[in-house]
Amino acid sequence: xxxxxxxxxxxxxxxxxxxxxxxxxxxxxSELKELDMSVVAGYLHTFLYIKVDGEDKLxxxxxxxxxxxxxxxxxxxxxxxxxxxxxEFEIEKVIAGGVHSFLKGKGKDVEDKLxxxxRNFExxxxxxxxxxxxxxxxxxxPKDFKIEKVIAGAAHSFLKGKDAEGKDKLxxxxxxxxxxxxxxxNNNRREWTEVPMPQGFSLEEVIVGGDHSFLKGKGKxxxxxxxxxxxxxxxxxxxxxFNDRREWTEIDIPQGFSVEKVMAGDxHSFLKGKGKDGNDKLxxxxRNFExxxxxxxNxxxxQWTEVDIPQGFSVEKLIAGRxNSFLKGKGKDGKDKLxxxxxNSFxxxxxxHRRYRNIWTExxxPQGFSVEKVMVGLxHSFLKGKGKDGEDKLxxxxxxxxxxxxxxxNNNRREWTEVPIADLLKKSQEDVNDRKKDGDVxxxxxxxxxxxxxxxxxxxx
Length: 461
Description:
Elements: H1 3-18, E1 36-41, E2 45-52, E3 55-62, E4 77-82, E5 90-96, E6 100-106, E7 112-118, E8 133-138, E9 146-152, E10 156-162, E11 168-174, E12 189-194, E13 202-208, E14 212-218, E15 224-230, E16 245-250, E17 258-264, E18 268-274, E19 280-286, E20 301-306, E21 314-320, E22 324-330, E23 336-342, E24 357-362, E25 370-376, E26 380-386, E27 392-398, E28 413-418, H2 421-426, E29 442-443
Parallel strand pairs: 8-29
Antiparallel strand pairs: 1-2, 2-3, 3-4, 5-6, 6-7, 7-8, 9-10, 10-11, 11-12, 13-14, 14-15, 15-16, 17-18, 18-19, 19-20, 21-22, 22-23, 23-24, 25-26, 26-27, 27-28
């Protein structure tokens, strides 16, 4: 190796050590407590982000044909693989869309930074040009804009934040065939475009499904307001018809219902909140062919329809996947409970079989495990929580053809299978397999990548 190459390699190792990419010590399962750990699932790819003792660790597994893992290649991974972090960048959040990914964080001067990789044929990375990215590519942020949140759908993306005067601002980029960007047309956007807000509306939250979008917030008098746009072919906007919307359209909230949370799957949607009696209420609309609305049938709904909550169950969280749904909460005895419905063709409901469910069915949780969070991808699922000794644990089930469960093989799982976090953190980091030289983990936003030219409706495969 030339001397210049040797110096670059030493610099890389030093930077990675500073950014926390290398574990300093081995850990036993009993030491895996109080980890700041998150799992982020795209359609067929998964990220595992762990912050422990001030160190950042980012791993990825699964489908990578369009570079969505940010590893600089297009090779799938069936086991957790170390993801190199951009230079002088501190990760705050990892976001996965259908087949694209973002890293949100801070640069060396504590300024907002955004990086992206993966499919970009529709412009969903917001880098100004077409072309997929196999490496983390810096994304230009709109001038005088402070990012609060990045929201990614199947092939479209939003940036929510504030301008220099502290006013709410929303920007969008990507696939807009159904009008899901709320810009009043059906034209895709390759760069971040400001999204006009409904008059007198104060934005609180942006929620995206596959090709539909919602805004939740307050009206000028402080009342709850709710808007939607985009694909509505199976009634997923809850507007009483099957017509797509190009502009933000106000959605009527069920009478006497107070919205706390809006959830969107690929083609179905939920409202979680309280009725006028103060009790938990749940409403659903959209695609229901697989029973994902939990209504006991397989008929689509184009209006918000009340969902029967399991008796004695208090809903804490609802998670909507592509064709399935989960309810996390407490039973009447105060113990954690988990329910699921919808598509189970790959065992993604964790019920031990592959039969669909059109009613909420209790999901057996691993013995001694307390569920904190449920994450779902296309046809795979994760449970994050605590073991009986208080250690952090992660379980997975469902489709694993591309290794998206991070279990080291390509076998599907019908039951919750523990993901070996302890083994992962014990492993000494390889020097990213000598794959990358210093600076090789990034691309300039102006460089063009290759594109597969897939039909946008096929991007998940």
